[in-house]
Design a protein that fits this description.
Order of helices and strands: HEHEHEHHEHHEHHHEEEHE
Bound molecules: xanthosine-5'-monophosphate
Largest sheet: 5 strands, parallel
Strand order of the largest sheet: 3-2-1-4-5
Helix content: 40-55%
Radius of gyration: 20 Å
Oligomer: single chain
Structural class: alpha/beta
Number of helices: 11
Strand content: 15-25%
Number of strands: 9
Shape: globular
């Protein structure tokens, strides 16, 4: 297991970092080709640009449509990168992910199923078809730290858990931003010319909306979280908060819909003040915003009769629910 050393923000020189990583990627991949996993988050966006600078069209950037993404996400991301001169292939893998998640409720089992579908099935197939021997991905220092500490298994941590990707999946994984935390990665994104709306996006987890569905992850339950997420993002994007999200609970509660008793769904809203996701506290939102969230989510998301706001700090909470 290789020990990863953090590059702290104070000692990060973006230009030097970019030059170093671009030549390292070019050297390691040599005359071969690579695939890169683009989710549209800042980490994988930065890695996509580094890889593109190093390899040009020998890098195939793939956006995997897992069925777990936010509203309009695949097309939005493809359009953004096309603008930057980077073509993105959308891979429809919805069936594979929902098949793997069927019947699973345990958080770690769900994460394991996502990891396995992602690396073995979807990327394994892509790599076999393309002949690429490398996968570039945006693992960051916080992912490593939390996984090694046993807090939560991040979907993208492999080597630190002793997984030999070459033996298990048939390709090597390159992680150019693994020594950086979010703020450092944003600085690199800015220096690479990513537009602010991209490098300043709130973090979004690799397992996507599955990290926000407590209990079984089905297309219908993801659709509920997707709708609620769109409302939360619209109403909270100007708060300056670190991250904000909607979670679907497993339990149902009694409510009233159209004047009748309805045993309906509960959505929990979380909004975090944090600098690095390691610790966090709930943003002190105005009651007016909270009421607006409750009104819009119950009116616009079918089946929801209860909306709550999480008032717990991390720790003991974590940012996501799964
Ligand atoms: P937690 O929930 O562990 O989240 O407090 C810390 C930060 O990491 C994001 N997150 C993930 N990111 N893969 C990722 O790439 C994951 O499996 C994952 N789980 C959580 C989360 O959104 C927060 O910013």
């Amino acid at each position: 297991m290789t020990e990863i050393m953090e590059i702290p923000l104070q000692s990060l020189d973006p230009k030097e970092f970019i030059t170093g990583k671009v030549s390292e990627i070019a050297r390691v991949v040599g005359t071969g080709s690579a695939i890169n996993a683009l989710s549209g988050g800042v980490d994988s966006s930065v890695v996509t640009l580094l890889g593109h600078r190093a390899l040009g069209n020998r890098l195939t950037s793939c956006f995997i449509d897992t069925g777990l993404m936010r509203k309009d996400e695949p097309e939005t991301i493809r359009a953004w990168f096309l603008n930057l001169g980077v073509p993105v292939t959308i891979v429809d893998a919805r069936e594979a992910f929902f098949d793997a998640l069927r019947g699973l409720k345990d958080p770690e089992e769900k994460r394991e199923a996502i990891t396995d579908t992602f690396y073995r099935k979807v990327f394994g197939d892509l790599v076999r078809k393309s002949g690429a021997k490398f996968l570039l991905q945006g693992t960051n220092y916080t992912d490593v730290e939390e996984t090694v500490a046993g807090i939560k298994r991040q979907h993208n941590i492999l080597e630190q858990l002793g997984i030999d990707t070459e033996a298990r999946y048939g390709y090597r994984v390159l992680e150019p931003v693994i020594e950086l935390r979010k703020r450092g990665i944003r600085k690199i994104g800015e220096a690479l010319g990513l537009p602010g709306e991209m490098y300043d996006r709130p973090p979004f987890p690799g397992p996507a909306l599955a990290a926000r569905v407590i209990g079984e992850v089905t297309p219908e339950r993801v659709a509920v979280v997707r709708e609620a997420t769109a409302i939360v993002e619209e109403l909270l994007e100007n708060t300056g908060a670190f991250q904000y999200l909607a979670i679907l609970h497993e339990d149902r509660v009694t409510g009233m819909t159209g004047g009748r008793r309805d045993f309906g769904l509960q959505v929990e809203v979380r909004c975090w003040d944090s600098t690095d996701a390691v610790t966090g506290s709930p943003t002190r939102l105005s009651f007016e915003i909270l009421e607006k969230l409750a009104d819009r989510i119950t009116e616009e998301v079918e089946g929801v009769v209860s909306v709550t706001y999480n008032i717990t700090k991390k720790p003991p909470s974590t940012i996501e629910a799964v």
